[in-house]
Prior knowledge:
- The chain is α/β, with parallel strands linked by helices.
- The chain folds into 2 domains: about 5-125 and about 305-320, ATPase, nucleotide binding domain (Nucleotidyltransferase, domain 5); about 135-300, Nucleotidyltransferase, domain 5.
- It is built from 9 helices and 10 strands.
- It is globular, with a radius of gyration of 20 Å.
Amino acid sequence: xxxxxxxxxxxxxxxxxxxxxxxxxxxxxxxxxxxxxxxxxxxxxxxxxxxxxxxxxxxxxxxxxxxxxxxxxxxxxxxxxxxxxxxxxxxxxxxxxxxxxxxxxxxxxxxxxxxxxxxxxxxxxxxxxxxxxxxxxxxxxxxxxxxxxxxxxxxxxxxxxxxxxxxxxxxxxxxxxxxxxxxxxxxxxxxxxxxxxxxxxxxxxxxxxxxxxxxxxxxxxxxxxxxxxxxxxxxxxxxxxxxxxxxxxxxxxxxxxxxxxxxxxxxxxxxxxxxxxxxxxxxxxxxxxxxxxxxxxxxxxxxxxxxxxxxxxxxxxxxxxxxxxxxxxxxxxxxxxxx
Length: 339
């Protein structure tokens, strides 16, 4: 008997629905919210209102594209957290309504676990999946973690940021340069034409496998402040070099910890996940580091790096197989640990 999972993702500003049958992706629709660009960041109230307007047409579209009727769904998986509470409430409430009306299981999914398991989505593009155990660098706007993945539902955080996330460092530094939101992709694009050694920024020394990016942001800000004082056009003249040097510094910090973790745990399978895993510089550097050490490196398809329901549906599929269902009174959580 086939197992068909409807996945719903609404943790931030993307409303997404996906349908997975027996681990194979049939559809994955995403409705993004452009309204936040003019504010330089996501406005929670506007995000939750947009989710309310988008969720029904997005779910309906995902079912139609998959060629699946609502009566064929065996379970509905949704993002429980972490994320914006208003946004999470929209997705969780809709999922509960579907589960209750159809009398099917409800599956709560950790958004971070979903990012990691995005590597196991099977679709029309053939791609190898990691074997267990493997090391995953989860890097996004809100999280930076090193995770040992022993089984689909057995993960251990072995290192994480003690302050800011790498994605936040990208976005905040982009903002002080006057770049549009979201800043990470813009920095990546400009960095391609810059000199990675043009500027040197602080590299925090943190023992163990944890990260820190607050000092880097401060160093970047002070560099701009001091240089702009002497030349008001400094940023405009050096934008590409600033982006290249910033990106190079962040990647060096990330990969130094990846290298240390792989050595400590003796793993030869290494993956990256999360929004920042779309960064071209990081993908290239990770591949080169893998070649150096003889690792098998797994890079997610670009369409699964940002928030999407396919990763929620595949996680829901594994939880369905394990019989990990949730009660209808389960609540979304703005902050939730991976374990």
